[in-house]
Amino acid sequence: MLPSPEGHGLGWAHGTARPLSNLLRVIGAADLALARLVEGHVNAAVLVEIHGDRQVREAMRTAVRRGVLLGVWGAEGPEPLEWRDHGGGGFALIGSKRYASGLGHVGLAVLTARATRDAPIRMFLAPADDPNRYDHDAWTASAMRATRSGGFDATGIILEEAECIGKAGALMTEPWFEGGVWRYCAAHVGGAEGLIARWTDMLRRMERLDDPIQRNRLGRAMADATAARAVVEAAAEAVEAASHAPPEAVERAVAHSLLAREAVESACTRILALCERSLGMAAQDIRDPLDRMRRDLSLFLRQAAPDAKLDRAVRTVTETGLEALR
Ligand SMILES: Cc1cc2nc3c(=O)[nH]c(=O)nc-3n(C[C@H](O)[C@H](O)[C@H](O)COP(=O)(O)OP(=O)(O)OC[C@H]3O[C@@H](n4cnc5c(N)ncnc54)[C@H](O)[C@@H]3O)c2cc1C
Questions:
Q1: Which helix (H) or strand (E) segment is 119 a member of?
Q2: How far apart are CA 76 and CA 94, in angstroms?
Q3: b/e sequence 219-244, b meaning 16+ C-beta within 10 Å
Q4: CA–CA–CA angle 15, 75, 36 (5° rounding)
């Protein structure tokens, strides 16, 4: 069952941050590709619920009730997606998206586009189910292949004003934009937990689980995963609490989420290294599900602009102090 934008209001209604974090973590532990798609679905629903007017919210809700999967396709290739006036308040799209997850699964995507290269970003809720627009071969990464990610050619899509989501620039509104990175971090923590479970199982099958050095590696990985989970849950709650707070509090919540991202990436990177050292070649055996989990986690950790994210958090914390983070 897909997370519904109604009822539980997962991801935007008060009190849902912790349950959503758990959901993404548990799905991530089973399958990181699925977690990627669910996170995209929730992200799209949140963007429409928070920024959209009644018409686009209704359109999204109706689609989700019919079982439509949503996605957010924002990543740009060398030729960023642009929109042109189509008359009568309509928009014509020109260009394509890359790294679009869920080709063939996603029915409606939040597409970002600008009027010109430096103009503010607009969001549109656009049909995403035309296979002629897909470029599966554009996903050249060796991992996360089950996400069915690739290029999406949006040229010629005509949209009405009612399919616009919020005002130009709304996408960057905090604490929802950078503050929202905790969601993919929750999936990463799930991936780390899933990897540890498969690793433990493999050591057991190899009859090496009683070896003190192997137990030490496992213990360090478990400690990292436990700490990463706590850090993500704290960030999720801080961002949720800041949703109607004054700007300084919002920026502190964003910093909290960005520092959590850094902590989770570091923890997951250490866990991957410990697992690979522990299992040697067996960690890279394509016949075992551990190998896919290891490769998927390693790739999924590579999200946009990590250095800029850390730097933004540092700027906030140098002014307010770590103590000021919730
Ligand atoms: C499995 C998976 C699924 C995805 N699905 C989607 C999706 O559905 N929709 C979507 O929109 N996107 C999706 N993405 C793309 C994602 O949102 C990011 O765009 C992508 O992961 C960025 O990866 P990157 O390593 O190229 O990042 P980069 O931002 O290029 O970072 C790589 C390195 O370059 C550094 N760097 C970045 N900018 C600069 C600069 N200006 N100067 C110097 N150094 C710089 C970074 O700090 C980092 O060290 C997906 C990605 C993955 C891995």
A1: none
A2: 12
A3: eebbebbeebbebbbbbbbbbbebbe
A4: 45
Q: How many angstroms separate the CA atoms of 103 and 228, rounded?
A: 31
All residue ranges of the chain with pLDDT < 50 are: 1-2
Give pLDDT tens digits for 197-223: 999 999 999 999 999 999 999 999 999
Cβ atoms of 114 and 83 within 8 Å: the answer is yes
Q: Look at ligand 1, atom 5, and give the residue with the nearest C-alpha.
A: 101
Task: Using alpha carbons, list the distances in angstroms from residue 297 to 35, 132, 143, 156, 174.
Answer: 11, 30, 9, 36, 27
149, 297, 309, 311, best to mutate for ligand 1 pocket (most atoms within 8 Å of CB): 149
For residue range 47-99, what is the model confidence (pLDDT) as tens digits? 999 999 999 999 999 999 999 999 999 999 888 999 999 988 899 999 999 99
Q: Going from the N-terminus, what domains does the chain have, and what CATH number goes with each?
A: 31-172 (2.40.110.10), 178-324 (1.20.140.10)
Which ligand 1 atom is at minimum distance from the Cα of 40? 8
Residue whose entry in the numeric block shows the structure tokens 């004054």: 246
